[in-house]
Write a structure and sequence with these properties.
Helices cover 44% and strands 6% of the residues. The chain has a two-stranded antiparallel sheet with strand order 1-2. The relative contact order is 0.11.
């Protein structure tokens, strides 16, 4: 009977005193670590620092990160900051998804210029064959 004084047994398993009344829903799973957290944190910080209207790259990055962390049990600071950024742009999740679907459907791809202004050392030079 000594085994029942220090805990209780169910079959071959012994539980410590006090654990026998612990309900499963009272314990929450520990936060998970995402393998891309560090690089994603940098992306979210860049989005937080942006002033003005977001461009296509910023919108698609925000949507990608929202999808990546949807349902993820961790990185709550990143998820909260990302939600804050999207709301500051005047979007909710549905509106952001609709906007980014339109961006992708237009043929836009990451790294493509979005404005008609050419910038750079060769922008003012006309390519001529001599």
């Amino acid at each position: 009977m000594d085994q029942y004084k220090s805990g209780f047994c169910i079959g071959p398993f012994k539980y410590p005193v006090g654990m026998e009344n612990k309900k499963q829903e009272e314990t929450s799973p520990p936060d998970q670590n995402h393998p891309l957290y560090a690089s994603d944190r940098d992306r979210v910080d860049a989005l937080l620092g942006h002033k003005g209207h977001p461009n296509e790259d910023q919108l698609t990055t925000a949507a990608m990160l929202l999808n990546r962390y949807d349902g993820f049990q961790g990185a709550m600071d990143l998820q909260e900051d990302l939600t804050k950024v999207v709301k500051s742009w005047g979007f909710d999740r549905e509106a952001l998804n609709a906007k980014t679907r339109a961006i992708w459907s237009s043929g836009w791809r990451p790294g493509t210029a979005t404005s008609g202004d050419d910038v750079g050392s060769g922008a003012d030079v006309v390519d001529k064959e001599t």
